[in-house]
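pinned: reference chain
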Amino acid sequence: MKPSEARPGEPVTVAAPDADCNPRYGANARIQISVADSSGAKVVNTTSAMNDGGGFSYTFVVPARTVSGQATVTAVPYNLDWCDDTGRNNRVAGAAVVQLQRASCVLPTKPLTIGR
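pinned: its structure tokens
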């Protein structure tokens, strides 16, 4: 995420490269991006395009109503079971049996400092 500190009215870009594990999200995959300010209020809650490998880039402008302090940014695949803690691939029905890497189910977050 760049920058890691911003003021209301300034742009912030949230991005991730393709995953190493070939998640096969599909041609119409979406990423859900949320930003909660230091009061806990969601000031951004949207979806954006994500490629089949999980890569994405999304830029938002910090809303004027955002409370200064430490905000939290999350980005997870939209409308998918993004947390594969079951040991089976629940996204690719009928796919050949492959060895899966289990993933943490902790919600991935990044800090964003909101200044004035």
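why pinned: The two ends are 19 Å apart (CA to CA). The chain is about 0% helix and 40% strand.
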